[in-house]
Amino acid sequence: MFVSKETIESASRKLFSQQEQKNDGRGVTCVRAICTYLDRGDFNSARTVFQGEGDKIRAYPDIEATCIKYFGCRSHGKHNCNDSLCIAMREHMHKKLFVDSLRQTADDVTKAHKQNT
Ligand SMILES: [Zn+2]
Question: Which domain holds residue 111?
Fold first, then answer.
């Protein structure tokens, strides 16, 4: 599978900035490991870390979404995988992302409200 240098660089940048904000700014170790491999241009090892550490990454649906976008599904490394388990996992992830975005909107509204009073 050919992956362009630009794709690898943007994947690394995106994942690094996403993990940076987690755990009160301490970040996520296994995601940084993925970035390290990506920075070396070693896309396959980066994907292997994602597939091995996916259980930890699942706690962060935005990071999981980025990984799936670049690496494909965890079990088969396929994009838009048709396996029923992979479809179920994607649906679960999108639900979590949706709930997170609602929570973020609610926080923003609360903040805006506080600023106005
Ligand atoms: Zn799959």
Answer: 5-116
